[in-house]
């Protein structure tokens, strides 16, 4: 029931945490039936060991109550709760054998095996090597020791085959959760807030932002949203490539070309052309090379003329980047390589004084601890710094000045070794302690065109993101017109719908794939309204939202109904949809571990297909033809609304904006 205080000790996600809790709680759980039987402890009992445990339990309950007062009910991770409960069961069944850590619980592969499965009995059998036991008897013993279940999480167990434990969820629990989704929304479990940085997007100045940067932007933004949603403090950082000797080259070239001052506006591709030209000159013309080097020195000393020229270059690029971010709904703090100039000087001294650098043909390099990896180039033979130098400086600044607990870098898979070596060298230099600071490189595969080759224009150039987005919007509009949607929408609504659809599709088709794999960019595929696409999901969402509208029932009424004892879930398809919704917390928790986002898309798709099944077999509104009288099934409407609430939350996390008409 709403407001009923529950003791949520079972919900622990992390295995060490679980183990500690098991150790702490198993005696308490043992004594719990006794506690419940004798509500008041006698004086004598107070002096006994048992009473101490009862006190402990009281404290635990009190903490839980207080926790709940502060934090409105949050969504529960069923897998994690079951895992903790099974860990307790195993600890009770086989005390002090250390096998509780073998417990794994996952969704079952088929409904005939229940909702979830625990297959620990086999692994425990192996670990215990006790000939008088077999996996089945182990499974029986685990089930017999399952702790009290304050949530009614489990309806029944079944020990099957060689020792699988099939778990059937309790309906009461499902009802309570759906009730809470409806009344309280989908609030994640409160956690200790961490300081987190996501370093993503990060295009390069004076170069076109390419599809790789688009992927980094899309994935990085979603990771940021997920981390924020979980309640952590987040810093989104755009580590743009805006520093280095190439800028001396470019400035020298531009000064030569525009003797009367730089133009007011310039497209990034023109800037990129100049960049290519300057590189040619640099490689072929000794005089130019000298001037380029002088320009670098002047830039590094921040001499006005050169510094202004550099600012002009950065600004030209920035205007272009910002247009893309605005369209995609991304806000990110620019803190490029140039930000670390002073830190780079310092890190070189630091590494030098620690004797971490070695001479190599005039360069100063740093080897990682791991064997077989290429070293970082910290100082080039011309004295300049590199990408490696900036990342070493950045990691020090991030750990020490920003005090971060968690740093995420989002780039293509081609940089996996770079980050491996950076993390390794940072540890070697004592800058980073990976037991305290979590560093994660989130990589992704290359983007392919419809011809399955690297995504390029026909002439072999980089595809301009602005043009790509424009094409997406045009295609989305065509799609809407093709379906005749324009007849039901004002021009304003159509504009909103086409943008939501275009950007939604581009984002979703990227996110729905395992990020490690290559990804085929196809407007035709992403704008398909069948299958796991944004179009399908957005339509489904709009349809769900329109049901309550048609029924003429307000959200307020639905909430009131959900609070009442009349609310129930009965039809098999209602239950199936509900159980699919309850998968959200476990998907969320897993994503926050490995930062693979596609399971969230899979879940959204499952929700929409379960919804369709439910909607096909369960009337929400029945109209009596002769009289025209409407009968509204409030239970089902609540379920529709809970589905909508969760889907909306998922769209928000993915940065996709559903519109009321589509
Ligand atoms: N800290 C970092 N290295 N962030 C990623 C930078 C990505 C780089 N500018 C590129 O375009 O590939």
UniProtKB/TrEMBL annotation:
GO CC term, one of those recorded: aminoacyl-tRNA synthetase multienzyme complex
EC number: 6.1.1.19
Known catalytic reactions: tRNA(Arg) + L-arginine + ATP = L-arginyl-tRNA(Arg) + AMP + diphosphate
First-tier enzyme category under EC: ligase
Keyword Aminoacyl-tRNA synthetase: yes
GO biological process: arginyl-tRNA aminoacylation
Lineage: superkingdom: Eukaryota
Keywords: Aminoacyl-tRNA synthetase, ATP-binding, Cytoplasm, Ligase, Nucleotide-binding, Protein biosynthesis
Compartments (UniProt record): Cytoplasm, Cytosol
Annotated ranges, domain Arginyl tRNA synthetase N-terminal: 80-169
Domain DALR anticodon binding: 537-662
Main location: cytoplasm
Gene Ontology molecular function: arginine-tRNA ligase activity; ATP binding
Keyword Nucleotide-binding: yes
Family: Belongs to the class-I aminoacyl-tRNA synthetase family.
HAMAP family tied to this protein: Arg_tRNA_synth
Protein name as it appears in the record: Probable arginine--tRNA ligase, cytoplasmic
């Amino acid at each position: 029931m709403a407001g009923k205080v529950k003791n949520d000790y079972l919900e622990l996600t992390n295995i060490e945490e679980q183990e500690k809790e098991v150790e702490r709680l198993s005696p308490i759980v043992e004594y719990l039936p006794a506690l419940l039987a004798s509500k008041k402890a006698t004086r004598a009992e107070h002096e006994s060991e048992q009473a101490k445990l009862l006190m402990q339990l009281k404290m635990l309950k009190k903490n839980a109550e207080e926790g709940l007062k502060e934090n409105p009910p949050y969504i529960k991770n069923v897998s994690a709760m079951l895992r903790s409960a099974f860990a307790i069961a195993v600890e009770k069944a086989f005390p002090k054998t250390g096998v509780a850590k073998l417990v794994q619980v996952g969704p079952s592969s088929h409904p005939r095996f229940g909702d979830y499965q625990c297959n620990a009995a086999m692994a425990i059998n192996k670990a215990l090597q006790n000939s008088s036991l077999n996996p089945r008897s182990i499974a029986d013993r685990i089930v017999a020791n399952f702790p009290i279940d304050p949530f009614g999480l489990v309806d029944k167990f079944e020990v099957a085959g060689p020792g699988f434990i099939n778990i059937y969820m309790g309906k009461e629990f499902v009802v309570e959760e759906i009730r809470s989704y409806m009344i309280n929304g989908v609030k994640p479990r409160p956690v200790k807030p961490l300081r987190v940085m996501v370093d993503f997007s990060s295009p390069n100045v004076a170069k076109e932002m390419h599809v790789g940067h688009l992927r980094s932007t899309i994935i990085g933004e979603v990771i940021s949203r997920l981390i924020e949603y979980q309640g952590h403090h987040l810093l989104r950082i755009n580590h743009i490539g805006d520093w280095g000797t190439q800028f001396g080259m470019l400035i020298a070239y531009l000064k030569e070309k525009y003797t009367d001052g730089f133009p007011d506006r310039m497209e990034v591709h023109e800037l990129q052309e100049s960049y290519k030209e300057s590189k040619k000159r640099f490689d072929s013309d000794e005089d130019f090379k000298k001037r380029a080097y002088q320009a670098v020195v002047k830039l590094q000393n921040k001499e006005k003329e050169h510094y202004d020229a550099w600012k002009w270059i950065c600004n030209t690029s920035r205007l272009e980047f910002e247009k893309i971010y605005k369209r995609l709904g991304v806000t990110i703090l620019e803190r490029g390589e140039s930000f670390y100039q002073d830190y780079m000087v310092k890190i070189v001294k630091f590494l030098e004084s620690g004797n971490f650098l070695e001479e190599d043909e005039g360069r100063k390099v740093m080897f990682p601890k791991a064997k077989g990896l290429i070293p970082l180039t910290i100082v080039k033979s011309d004295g300049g710094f590199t990408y490696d130098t900036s990342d070493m400086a950045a990691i020090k600044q991030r750990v020490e000045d920003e005090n971060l607990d968690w740093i995420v870098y989002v780039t293509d898979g081609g940089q996996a070794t770079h980050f491996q070596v950076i993390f390794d060298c940072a540890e070697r230099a004592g800058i980073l302690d990976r037991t305290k600071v979590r560093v994660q490189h989130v990589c992704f595969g290359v983007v392919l065109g419809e011809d399955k080759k690297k995504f390029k224009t026909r002439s072999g150039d980089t595809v301009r993101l602005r043009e790509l987005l424009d094409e997406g919007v045009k295609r989305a509009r065509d799609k809407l017109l093709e379906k005749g949607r324009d007849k039901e929408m004002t021009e304003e609504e159509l504009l909103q719908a086409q943008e939501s659809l275009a950007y939604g599709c581009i984002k979703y088709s990227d996110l729905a794939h395992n990020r490690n794999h290559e990804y085929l960019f196809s407007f035709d595929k992403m704008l398909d309204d069948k299958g796991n696409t944004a179009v399908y999901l957005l339509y489904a969402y709009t349809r769900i939202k329109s049901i309550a509208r048609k029924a003429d029932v307000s959200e307020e009424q639905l909430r009131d109904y959900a609070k009442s004892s009349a609310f129930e879930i009965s039809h098999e398809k209602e239950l199936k949809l509900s159980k699919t919704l309850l998968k959200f917390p476990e998907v969320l928790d897993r994503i926050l571990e490995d930062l693979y986002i596609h399971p969230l898309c899979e879940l959204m798709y499952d929700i929409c297909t379960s919804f369709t099944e439910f909607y096909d077999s369960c009337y929400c509104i029945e109209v009596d033809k002769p009289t025209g009288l409407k009968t509204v099934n409030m239970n089902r409407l609540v379920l529709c609304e809970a589905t909508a609430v969760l889907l909306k939350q998922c769209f928000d996390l993915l940065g996709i904006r559903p519109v009321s008409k589509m």
